[in-house]
Structures are given as C-alpha cells and as structure tokens.
Design goal:
With about 500 residues, this protein is α+β, with helices and mostly antiparallel strands. It has 4 domains: about 200 residues, no CATH class; about 60 residues, no CATH class; about 140 residues, no CATH class; about 45 residues, no CATH class. It is built from 22 helices and 7 strands. Strands 1, 2, 3, 4, 5, 6 and 7 form a 7-stranded mixed beta sheet that branches. Strand 5 and strand 6 form a beta hairpin. The radius of gyration is 25 Å and the shape is globular.
Length: about 500
Amino acid sequence: MTPASPAAMTRALGISREIEDAAWFVLGPGLLGKPSALDGRTLTWTSEAAAELLERLERGTPDPKAPMMTNLRRNLEGASREAKQLAVELLFLQSLPLAHEVKSLKVKRARVAEAASWLEPPLELPGELYQGMTDHGVIRDRTAEFNWTIWDHLKWLCRFVQHVDQQPPAVITGALQDPLNFHRLAAGTPDDQPAIRRSIEFLSWPSYFEPVVADVERQEIRDAFASLVGGAMGEAEGDITADIHRIRLHLDEQAGQRIDWYSRQLVSQWRKVGDPGHRAWLLRTHGDDTELLTAWQDQEKVTLDVEHLRLLDPGVTAGLVQHAVDEDYKHLGYVEREDTKTAVFAFLTVMKPGDLVLYQHAGAVRLGGVLGEPDCNDDNRRLRRKVRWFDEGHAAASLPRHVQRQLATAGIVVDVTRVMPALQALLPAEAETEPDGDAEAAAVVHAGQEGFRPLTRAFADSLHMELEPLQEIAELLEENRQLVLYGPPGRQNLPGEAPRGRAGG
C-alpha cells in the first residue's frame, strides 16, 4: 500500500531546532544548487566535485592502523577546493544528528574543523554551523556504527549529491515540497545505505521523518502503537514510515508537544528488550568450522546455524524463542536446547548495531562491530548479521587473564560485556569513538582511568608475595568485585591490602 502524500506540508521543525537548522544551513543551498553556505561562493554540490571526492574515498585507507582523518587527509592531498569543501560539508552532515555517549561538544566539532583546515587558504567555519553541533544529538545508540561505516556513509553522500545534481529542477522542487517525493529522490541514490539515508531524510524533513534509523526499532515502534491509529498500513518501508508519522502526531496531541521516542516513558513501551548500552559478544561455530569462519571474514558477517528452527522475526520475545526451540529441537538434550535458546534470542533480539563481536580461531581473536539487523540466508538455515571486521587479530594468550577466562565460557553466543573495556582497548584507531589523534588539541577529552592501577613489584614485596599470583588475585577481584580467600594464618592483611594497592590508596 502506498501512503498518500501529506497535504500542504512544509519543512517544519522536529525534535531539535538547533540541529535541524544547522543541517538546513548546509542542505538547503546544496539541494538548490547554490554556492556553499560555508563561504558563500564555492559550488560544492556538483556532479564533478562529488565524483572527485568519491574517487578519492574509493582509494581506501592508505594506513589501516591510522586514524580515519589521517587517511582522509592523505586521500584528499591535491584535490580541488570544491572536493575538499564538499568533504567538510558531508562530514558535518554525517555526524551532526548523532547522540554521542562519550564525545563532548568540542570533540563533535573536531573532525569538521580539521577537514576545514586542509583547504588553502583554510576555511573559517561560520557560526551557524557550530550552533547546531550540540553534544546531545537525536539519533541514539548509533555512534559506533556511524564511525565504523563512515567511509561507506561518505561514499553514499557523494552519490546522493551526484544524483541530486543530475535531476531536473521539477524533481528537486517536488522533493522540497513533499517529504514522500524527497524519500523517492534519496532512495533513488545508487547502492543504498539505509541508516545515513534515513538520517538525511530526517534532517531534510524533520516534520515528517523520525530520527530512528534502525529497521528493528522502526518496526517495534510501529507495532507497539499501531492500534492507536487504526492499525498498520503495510510492511513496506514507506508504509512503516507513514504509520510512525501518524502515531507520532497522535502522541504529540496527547502530550501537547513533540514526543521523543527514546524518552524513558516511551521507550519502555516499544522496546522489547531493556537497553543496557552496547554489549560485546563471543560467537562460535560448531566444531570450529574453518571454512565458515573464513566466510565470516571475507563476507563481513557472522552467522548462527538454525537448520531445524522455524522462521522467527527480529526482536522476537524470549518466550516465543523458548517455545520454538523446545518444539523444533526435541532431538537435542536439555543443555543443548538451553544453549540454542540463549544464542537465538541474543542474535535476533539482544544484539544490536554498534555492539562488539569476536571469534577465536587458531590461537587468535578477531574483533568486529555489528552493523546490520539480523536476516536469513536464502535457505533459512542460518541467521546472519553484517559485521565490519577490524584489520588486526590478537593472540589469545596475550590477552589479560580475566579476558581469557571470559573467552573460555561455554556457549555458541556468549555475552562477554563485562570485559568490554579490555576489548575496546584492542580496537584500532579507525574503530575508536574517541577523537582522532590528529584532531586539534582543544577538542580532545581525556578519559579518566578505568579500573585499578597495575600492581608493582614493590607492592608485592611489601606483602611478601610473588607478583604473578597477586596479579591473578587482583584480576579476579576486578572481574568479580568480591573474593573469598582461604589460607594459613599470616595472610590476614592481604584482603585489605590488595584492593588498596590496586586503587593506589
């Protein structure tokens, strides 16, 4: 079913005026083919500038270990001013609406300011740009995903600029008068990237589109509230968008203001699983299948074998998973069925874009980031999720012992979130959500020390112990937060001294 075009709509503001105004400060001139608002004279939204920038982005990362901005700067060396200035605008649009969990306002500006400094002479960014670069954002829980896919997003934005520039004026006029026409324009961009496309749709038409870019969340919101507006229109993307718009207008009227889908009161009504933040997951294949692990790596995915399981939708409840596995896997023993339930529920419902995933093989650990929602392969024998694998593997034996213990936990899909800080420390610069090393010093936020201080030989000597067993006790304490120690008389001071030594007290 195709939703009808909204009657006489205008680009009214949505949930965040400062963000939406700042976005339109850049988008408006670009869509209308006018000079860039950043300097009032350079034409950036042209097929030529976009093609030049796209070609340089497609060169890839010269140094996978280097920060993203370092690689981008190298790729843009010798580029035209138009291409460099377009890169500034697209970097701004890509990060503008994100709600950053760890980035401050200064850090959010750092990439854009750094890219502006590459122009000759350097581009002085107008105040209108900074006014919208707030630290709260409106697109939630997508910072890591947007950072890991920033190259893909920038490429899509280049193709979008090309696509816009090639349209007749009547098409652009129609897109600026009707949000459904704008959706058709954006969706017509080759090689769709739904997350960044929906972000641009929201920034262009915040009165109609919502800052919700994940398929599962859109579906959950629509399904939770569809009864308020007489039921769902259909399952196509446009139908779900129209349903959410009708629901939001209904809830706005009840609340007397524009509602926020991620407010505590609303999110508890539509999100099927409580949101504890990003998680880390250890995934295994049956029998350490080398061929399948190679496919994971080459095809940038992870999979879960469900050969005997009926088709279950993403976001399925734990109760439905339990019933389905009990019925479809009667040939398995109790322990195997319980492991299957845990794995299926985690894969379909709990795991989300932005989570870390890892697998072990041949003594090495490989980490990646979840990018997509779950789906099935053609024969429905495996569930799969898109993953961006990071370039370097890590020797399992070199990991901290509390991490090694977590990785020894049995299961097909294991939640290892408790060691996530240690895993995040292994991520390459390209994957970090903190500012790049080349960002201006004023934009850097120094994180406080997490956990305990490392133990020293001098501290071990003060307890008349060897450092290695004391280190193991300390790691267990850091992992479990409490320990019961048994031993002969004379060690009574150890339980009190070890925590103080780790804390530096």
